[in-house]
């Protein structure tokens, strides 16, 4: 169950990162409130996952899902630039998560 909590927490990190972008520096009320609520949910689920997973593993996976997910959303939804170096960086993050999971 801890891995499910952690996965959902990481996906919520992607959601709040995107909604923070949409909040325009917290100047738009709706996206700002949504950002805060999804942040709280993400942190809460991360905390639940950390009851059973090591700190380093849980935090690395959570931030990795958030970082790679935000990158993907940025490229697909926001039309951000994609190039070989950015793809390689995202690939290294995914590889790091896989190695960390295998080591645990």
UniProtKB/TrEMBL annotation:
The UniProt GO MF terms for this protein read: transmembrane transporter activity
- Gene3D superfamilies associated with the record: 1.10.3730.20
Q: Which Pfam families match?
A: Multi_Drug_Res
| Membrane topology reported for the UniProt record | Multi-pass membrane protein
Q: Which UniProt keywords apply?
A: Cell membrane, Membrane, Transmembrane, Transmembrane helix, Transport
Q: What is the protein's name according to its record?
A: Guanidinium exporter
Organism phylogeny: Bacteria, Pseudomonadati, Pseudomonadota, Alphaproteobacteria, Rhodobacterales
Instruction: Please state which protein family the record places this protein in.
Output: Belongs to the drug/metabolite transporter (DMT) superfamily. Small multidrug resistance (SMR) (TC 2.A.7.1) family. Gdx/SugE subfamily.
Source domain of life is: Bacteria
Q: Where are the transmembrane segments?
A: 33-50, 57-79, 85-103
For this UniProt entry, what is the primary localization, expressed as one broad class? membrane
Entry keyword annotation includes Transmembrane = yes
**What are the subcellular locations of this protein?**
Cell membrane
Q: Name one GO cellular component term.
A: plasma membrane
